[in-house]
Amino acid sequence: MRAALWYKAKDLRVEEIPTPVAPPGMALVKIDRTGICGTDLEEYLLGPVIIPAGMSPIILGHEFVATIVSDSTGTFAAGTMVIPDGVIGCGTCYQCQRHEEGRCPELNVIGLQSNGGLAEFMITDPKRCVPVPAGVSADVAVFAEPTAVAVRAVNKIPNVPGTTVAVLGSGTVGILCAQVARAFGAQKVIVYEPNPVRQEVARKLGFEVLNPLVEKEISMYKEFDSVLECSGVAGSTKTSLKILRSGGTAVLVGFRPGDESFDLLEFILSEKHLVGTAAHMWDVDVSAAVGLLANKIIETGPLLTDVISLADVTTKGFDRLISDKNAFKIAVNPTL
Fold it and tell me: What does the record give under GO molecular function (predicted)?
């Protein structure tokens, strides 16, 4: 089969490798689409960041939708479209016992710590797959993983219905977070974004948009009940806390290596909450995401910039995402 193998920073090669054989209890799936994530882009540019030392070469890709080829457990019939689980824990530690595998010290994220979905085929655990309802296309289902990220992030907010929510950054995950917050009952969702193209997409989806680089606009609202920080840019934590009401919750969704600083005294005295979010659970967050997508509560059309072949993954995928700041999600179709 063909697969996109990461060897080191700026060294991604599409090569022919043996098609994997599913051991007992596992399933072989054919990849329909794999989205290129910002995390993949970081590994391409700077890696290894999350990829463990010595793992090279590794197949990237953790935003996948696939079709069952064979399932030794009988959980799914051949031809069933599914979202495979991408967050695997050891199964025995404190976190795994509480179904928080994303916090497992031996965490295995498919496509970062083991071979992922930028390939024609992949092995997965069918008992941890979420079926995709009939009528949902692969181009929509490929957003299940990033939508699950948004679902988990919004669920970190103690109370959403009737509240005001700010979203900093309107990339793919930012727009999905804004839509999920609205779907979960937020009374008002304001999106902060400096890029005019991304601003327009957010507006067309019905959101009020402000520019975080304009002091007058960033301070127009000063009492948000919660903030979803999705940009990951330097200083974003301080900005999030600045526009958050006393007792409110700021959820850090976007990330980058490095430190952030803010006024600790003000943070303590105002009793604000600062929460991180990273992983997602297949039967909670991914299942909810698939439901939102299947019921057309979340709109993904404006977010799908392109669908490309595996052969073009470097030039039309990773390199384009680096140079084109107006691009949202680029998905790879290995059958093209």
Answer: oxidoreductase activity
CB 211 within 8 A of CB 194: yes
Q: Which of 76, 71, 44 is nearest to 60 (CA)?
A: 44
Q: pLDDT by residue (tens digit) across 89-98?
A: 999 999 999 9
Per-residue pLDDT, averaged over 102-114, amounts to 96
Q: What's the domain count of the chain?
A: 2
Nearest to 82 by CA among 31, 26, 44: 31
Distances (CA, A) of 145 to 9, 11, 50, 312: 24, 25, 18, 22
3-class secondary structure, 296:
coil
Q: Taking the CB of residue 253, how many other CB atoms lie within 10 A of it?
A: 27
- Kindly state whether residues 17 and 132 are assigned to the same domain: yes
Q: What tens digit of pLDDT does each residue of 276-298 get? A: 999 899 999 999 999 999 999 99
Reduced to 3 states, what is the DSSP secondary structure of residue 287?
helix
CA 60 – CA 31 distance, rounded (Å): 13
Q: Which of 157, 230, 170 minimizes the C-alpha distance to 200?
A: 170
Q: Give yes or no for a contact between 75 and 55, defined as CB atoms under 8 angstroms apart.
A: no
- For residues 141 and 304, what is the distance between their CA atoms, to the nearest angstrom? 11
Confirm if 191 and 178 have CB atoms less than 8 A apart: yes
Supply the pLDDT for residue 258.
82
Measured CA distances, 27 to 33, 60, 76, 127, 290 (Å):
17, 19, 9, 9, 20
Q: How many residues are listed for the chain in this entry?
A: 336
Residues 98 and 214 in one domain: no
Q: Which CATH number fits the domain that encloses residue 258?
A: 3.40.50.720
Confidence of residue 255 (pLDDT cuts 50, 70, 90): confident
* Integer Cα distance of 89 and 97 in angstroms: 10
The reported pTM is 0.96
Q: What residues make up the domain containing 24?
A: 2-145+279-333
pLDDT above 80: residue 256: no
Q: CA geometry: angle at 311 spanning 308 and 312, to 5°? A: 50
The answer to the question of residue 315 being in a domain is: yes
